[in-house]
Amino acid sequence: MRYAVALLLGMALALPAQAQNTAAATAAQDARAAKVTEAIAVLKSSNPAGAIALVDPVIAEYERDYPASGPNVFCANGTTEVIMGLVTGAAATKKDTVALNDTWCYAYWAKGYALVELGRLDDAVAPLTRAAQLMPSNAQFHTELGYVHQTLKHWNESNAAYNAAVTAAQRMPEGDSRNLSLRRAYFGLGFNEIELGQLDAAEKHMEQALKLAPNDPKIRNELDYIKEQKAKKSGKPN
Question: Can you point out the beta strands (E) in 72-114?
Fold first, then answer.
């Protein structure tokens, strides 16, 4: 995962006055980014409660600046994501659309991840959902939301999140990051389908994951399990 927080990508399209690219706004943005970066470091040092304490004020500030009644807001990295998000967001919501950098999204992600670490899975759903909504191009957000729903046995919600992760990953540049994101999403879908008894679908997704990670023992174990279960159902020896 890319933890670096990019510089402000806020667009001038219907941008609220408080978010204009003034020196004060830039300083405030830098302070928020620094807090999120610090929170992620704290999270990696096994202090989830400390991470939540750092990101909660950042989340509150963004929610104050961009209330639900205001413009449509999303997070993006790079010009292509900004343009795509502005066009699709305006078309889908019929509202003015604002592109921000990823600080707000990673604040939600960090809170959700920290809550998972604290064993508060139900509480983690909301911030991870919001991170994925604000940054639909981020496959990691969708995958981690899918995992939380999976652990809670919310199969439909988990499948929806993993399918969103596949869509996001397929738009990534070719390379290891794309392959890893796809592998995680396919594995998640396959695991859900095993739990639901959908063995043919599970086998397909696990095979897709295996193509991306041929030496992954977890995938091979799941495929072996699927074959055993299919053999039992058919009454034939494996």
Answer: 72-75, 97-100
